[in-house]
Amino acid sequence: MRADARRNLHKIVEAAAEVVAERGVNAPMEAIAKRAGVGIGTLYRRFPDRDALIAAVGDHYIHTMAEALDTAAAGSADAWNAIREFVSWVAEPGRAALSTALAVLPEEAIVEREEFARVRAGWVGQFDALVRKAQAEGSMRPDVGVEDLVHLLNVFTCHPDQLPAPVAADPGRYLLLMLDGMKSGAATPSGA
């Protein structure tokens, strides 16, 4: 692929992610082309229909998550801070809006696609390694697993409509409060 074609492709997917976060998966293709700074013909040459574009947005989203986890793991002093940084990143308003928009789609449209599933499995595996490392370092409760964190991220960023309005208005704050409950020493003793 030529360099200019690759740039256009990247611009279209980035613009589509922004517009979908703002307006949902049924946002006008024209709005996406305009945001990308390309003609509608260029958009349709790259993506013959909305489904193809939305699938590319899903792949872009999961790749971005994997990169953010890499960055958090590489740039943090310890595993606990890497987990906290990543959770904060995922809950940023624009990103959470994109998660919410993509969550309305049937699983086969995004989640069950081979590329999405492969990259998701990779970042979940890396996230699990961070959780185990934080536990080994003594900063995270031993009874918490990566599945707990993935479920919380899913609820708070993909399904805010199922949360009370004040929580849905600031999911990042509540995610971090819940994460703080996963620190060592935060566990409620059995029988309490």
Largest sheet: none
The helical percent reads over 70%
Quote the distance from N terminus to C terminus.
Answer: 62 Å
Radius of gyration: 18 Å
What is the CATH third-level topology name of the largest domain?
Answer: Tetracycline Repressor, domain 2
CATH class of the largest domain: Mainly Alpha
Secondary-structure arrangement, i.e. CATH architecture of the largest domain = Orthogonal Bundle
Structural domains: how many: 2
Report the total helices.
10
Poorly predicted parts: none
Beta percentage is under 5%
* Secondary-structure content class: mainly alpha
Q: What would you call the shape? A: elongated
> What number is the mean pLDDT?
88
DSSP strand count: 0
What is the string of helix and strand elements?
HHHHHHHHHH
Features:
192 residues; mainly alpha; Arc Repressor Mutant, subunit A; Tetracycline Repressor, domain 2; 10 helices; 0% strand; elongated
Question: What can you tell me about this protein's structure?
Answer:
Helix 1 (3-23) packs across helix 2 (29-36), helix 5 (79-90) runs antiparallel to helix 10 and helix 6 (93-103) packs across helix 8. The protein has two domains: 1-48, Homeodomain-like (Arc Repressor Mutant, subunit A); 50-180, Tetracycline Repressor, domain 2 (Orthogonal Bundle), CATH 1.10.357. 71% of the residues lie in helices and 0% in strands. The chain is mainly alpha-helical and 192 residues long. It has helices at residues 3-23, 29-36, 40-46, 50-75, 79-90, 93-103, 114-136, 146-158, 165-169, 171-180. The mean pLDDT is 88.
